[in-house]
Design a protein that fits this description.
The chain is mainly alpha-helical and 386 residues long. The protein has a domain of 100 residues: Tetratricopeptide repeat domain (Serine Threonine Protein Phosphatase 5, Tetratricopeptide repeat). It is 78% helix and 0% strand. The protein contains 23 helices and no strands. Helix 6 packs antiparallel against helix 7, helix 13 packs antiparallel against helix 14 and helix 19 packs antiparallel against helix 20. The longest helix is centred in the N-terminal third of the chain and has 23 residues.
Amino acid sequence: MSDELNEIPRTAPNQEQTELNGTIKQPEETQEAAEIADLSKKGYQLLKENKISEAAGCFSKILLVDENNNYALVGMGDAARKRGSFRDSVEYYRRCLAYHPGNNYALFGLADCYKALNQYHKAIEIWEQYLLHDDKNITVLTRVADAYRKVRDFKHSKMVYLRVLEMEEHNPYAIIGLGHLHYDFKEYRDALFYWEKMLQTAQENVDIRVLTSIGNCHRKLKTFQEGIEYFEQALRKEPGNFYALFGLADCYRGMNRQELSLEYWNRILEQDPRNKVILTRAGDAYRYLEKYDQAVEYYERALNIEFDTYAVLGLAIVAKARGKYDEAQESLKRMIQQDPRNYRIFIELADCYLKKGEKNKARETLEEFQKLGIRNNGIAEMFDRI
């Protein structure tokens, strides 16, 4: 008898059944479902329009009626994610998945949140779950490959990027990803292959980041003249682009064209006058050009921002160049105590002793570095000269 009472009616109840059994309220339920559907539709439309608070209001109304509604929980997760409240967003997506396992939208959103929180291993785990339901989704596959790249898993990252390219030969995200992957692992020629492939695909509408990435590959390969060409193209597109200016300055530095490198270091400093690294690089350029007053000015500007080993080293080298060997030695000895594995400091200190005719002390300085068990060509070459 109890089984009969609990059985779901196969047909819509008639008026007599409705009156006899107060638990059957199909018309009201239908109306409630319609209201939820309208609120859900409205909420997602508001999300598209970036009206996040209004959208969240719609989803909250649904949850008051149906606390485990999958559309509303995903909607609240999406709203929190758009606001950048990733931890709140995670809670909504996880709540949805607790009641609706395998919900693709919740899985996608949750993985994206973990990625934004730099929890790449968790993101990979969730995206792999997503791919069980949809293993041909190129957007998800490229995200998985990106995440593997972030955790420095070269093998799996490359494998997934190449899988995307098998499905879509000219997919820009996979090509760009492979460029970044090989660059991150210092495989600059392979990186160059993919960036140039991207350049061929894009042609006239090439992204400035592709140009600076190709330039950076040439910079790392020390093919500076070729790198200059791409950085100049980037600068024509965007005259104040930091990466293009830095690339040009560093290429000219590599070619020992310090007067040209200075032009671009100073252009960066016009935009960012408190950039400690650039101030030190500019100081080095002035020092190479034997413009010692300007070099000292730039090094001191860098040190007024924050301590910088290379600015202090630069000042010591200027002192040595001006014949102030004792001053340079004292500074370099203090630096060795702070940075005992920096071979350049030992070379400069040994050179100070050589300038004073104290060869034994120069040898002792170089031997002190060798006792650290670090092999260095610069140290070995100086020993040979002595």
